[in-house]
Design a protein that fits this description.
alpha+beta, globular
Length: 206
């Protein structure tokens, strides 16, 4: 396996970042939802530490974007916490929590530890900055298949208990994250019935 490097991204990486998005979210995914140059510039300017790429043989194979917030437990949407993908007005430099708004891996590089490496880099950043936690809104794409038989709370609990497998939430649990709260109308997402689960990894140093 070639060496996998996680490093900060800059505006010079825009073409590579866009390639990853195009491969991960091909049509009919709306093009306007891919990162644009102004958003990448805003990430780098607002919180460069939270802008990460995974690179193998000089090729960008994954990316992750985060910002700082003061976690207060209030319900929110992705658009609110991500400032519609720009993070400029939602990033709180004195925040206590690292919030992941995006993680993307090229399909041809999935299953090679890219996402895990990006999550490990986020955990390392939490420790370096002395933050309380890492949080992210987690899709639950398996929920639509059983929504007529169980509540979203019961579904999440069944995944946590290992009785059900969910493509995204099960992966998050394997990274050591745990459900914190359920967020209705988080993102337009038919598979998750527009729900997300806010998951948390607590800084073990505190």
């Amino acid at each position: 396996m070639d060496e996998l490097i996680v490093r900060p991204y800059t505006l010079a990486d825009f073409d590579g970042l866009l390639e990853v998005q195009k491969e991960a979210f091909p049509p009919p995914f709306p093009e306007e939802l891919w990162w644009n140059r102004a958003q990448i510039a805003a990430h780098v300017e607002s919180f460069p530490e939270g802008a990460k790429v995974a690179v193998i043989r000089d090729k960008i194979v994954g990316s992750a974007t985060s910002l700082l917030i003061k976690y207060d437990g209030k319900p929110h949407t992705w658009e609110e916490v991500a400032d519609n993908g720009y993070i400029q007005s939602s990033h709180q430099p004195d925040g206590d929590s690292l919030y992941g708004i995006d993680l993307c891996v090229r399909p041809s590089f999935r299953g090679k530890g890219v996402a895990r490496a990006l999550y490990e880099a986020r955990k390392q950043l939490v420790r370096e900055l002395g933050l309380t936690r890492f949080v992210a809104g987690c899709r639950i794409p398996g929920y639509h298949q059983v929504a007529s038989q169980m509540t979203v709370e019961d579904y999440v609990q069944a995944v946590v208990d290992g009785k059900r497998h969910d493509l995204v939430l099960t992966f998050m649990l394997k990274q050591g994250l745990r459900p914190l709260q359920i967020l209705p109308n988080y993102l337009e997402d038919d598979e998750s019935l527009h729900y997300a689960v806010l998951v948390e990894w607590k800084n073990p140093d505190l």
